[in-house]
Each structure stands twice: as C-alpha cells, then as structure tokens.
Amino acid sequence: MTVNGPGDHPRSLFDPPPGTGNGPAALLRVHGLRAGYGPARVLHGVDLELAAGEMVAVLGPNGAGKTTMLRALSGLVRGRGSVLLDGTELLGRAPEEIVRLGVAHVPEGRGLFAPLTVEENLRIGAHLRPANERAEDMRRVLAWFPVLRAHLSQPAGTLSGGEQQMLAVGRALMTRPRLLLLDEPSRGLAPVATRRMFDVLRAVGSHDRVAMLLVEQDARLALEFTSRALVMESGRLTVGGPAGWPQAGRRPSLFRPGR
C-alpha cells in the first residue's frame, strides 16, 4: 500500500513520515525478514522502516508472528533477509552484540531476575555500558521512573505488576538504546499504570530520540499513543498507516480482548 508524499512520489505506509528520520535514511530498515523455529516458518518476508524518535505499534491476532519478529530483530531467533540499524546489518550477530549496537528488547513476561533487587536488575542492564557512564545511566532511568527509587533495595519479584514493567523498561533504557522493542507492555497492568507507562515511553522517545517498535494487545491504546500502526497477519505486515487510519476501524478483530 502506498500514499503520495511531497512531489507526488509514492511512499509506503510501512515507511516513516517524511522528515522524521535521522537524516535522509530511516534508523531501522527491515527488508524481506524471514524467521521461524526449526522447519516451521513464522515470518514470510517482513518489510518496514522506523525513524529515530518514532513509536510504531504492531497489531494482529495471536500467532501472527509479532513476537517472533521482535526476537529476530534482537537476535534471539535466527532470521534471513536484511535488518539494518543506521546502515549496520544486524542479522547474523549475537544478541549481546546487537545490544552494543543500540537495540534493547523488553520481552513478554518482562524477564526480570525476581530474587535480585531493583538496583541489581538495573545494573545488569548497564553491564555492557562503559563503567564511567553507568551512574549517569542510573540517574536518567530513575528520573523517568521515580517510583523505582524508593524500591532500589527491594527484590524485583515483590514489586507490583506496574512497577515490574517500569523496571523492565528501565533496565532496557540502561543500555542507552537507539531502538527499543517492547512485547505487550500493557499486559497485566491496571489502566492507570498502563497509561503512565505509555506517557513515559512517549516522553523518552521524544526527548532521547529512541525509536520504539511495540507489539500491543490493546489496539485502542496503541492507536492513541503511537504515530503509526501496522497489522501483522500470518507472518506478513498486511496493512499500515498513521495511528487512527480509517482501515483500523474496519478491522474489529483488532479490538477483541487478548489480541
């Protein structure tokens, strides 16, 4: 699907809006991404672009391949095709190397170390950062999530669901990412905690120019907070456009609980 941009040049709805990129090129360029588990193919050629500071939602039914796409981008699942971050190919690299290049992944389930304290979990997120910059990284994250400051010595497993999600995102931000991947950040959260989380994500993206690609079960929430939304079905991105684009209202399956 394409639209006409300035000068009537065709522009894909999977591309960032004009003028939002970091220079002439998008921060993230994904072309023909294929991935799966063993002989089972899940992704069948995903193409998308993402600009610095842009927040994009990926919607779709369970089993469509959304989580697999995030895992392939972060190196947790082997993929084929091309994934360029600011011109550097990510496919074929180890997850730790992809983190060093600027990609952070907050998986579904948060992936926290429950027996460790909040502070220890945050410091684990910074273990690849230069030692002389970790204190500043901690200061920045606690400024974004001040509620965590009161719980620094508390085991992560004793936090509320909203606090655990803040910790998971905060740990990812300790890596100073350029691209943040989030898998269903609102799952299990109360509405107030969910909106607080999305307010912070939007502020981080705007202030630090962090690009965000998020898989979200709450389609209405995603369409409210993101700049673009894409729909994944059967391992392919089938439609996309600005958040609130007319086609979304004609796809009622996106608005069912648990989708």
UniProtKB/TrEMBL annotation:
UniProt name for this protein: ABC transporter ATP-binding protein
Matches recorded under InterPro entries: AAA+_ATPase (IPR003593), ABC_transporter-like_ATP-bd (IPR003439), ABC_transporter-like_CS (IPR017871), BCAA_Transport_ATP-bd_LivF (IPR052156), P-loop_NTPase (IPR027417)
UniProt-listed Pfam families: ABC_tran
One GO BP annotation of this record: L-amino acid transport
Domain ABC transporter: 28-259
Keywords: Amino-acid transport, ATP-binding, Nucleotide-binding, Transport
Entry-linked PANTHER family: HIGH-AFFINITY BRANCHED-CHAIN AMINO ACID TRANSPORT ATP-BINDING PROTEIN LIVF
Gene Ontology molecular function terms on file: ATP binding; ATP hydrolysis activity; branched-chain amino acid transmembrane transporter activity
Family: Belongs to the ABC transporter superfamily.
Annotated segments matching region Disordered: 1-22
Species, as recorded: Planobispora longispora
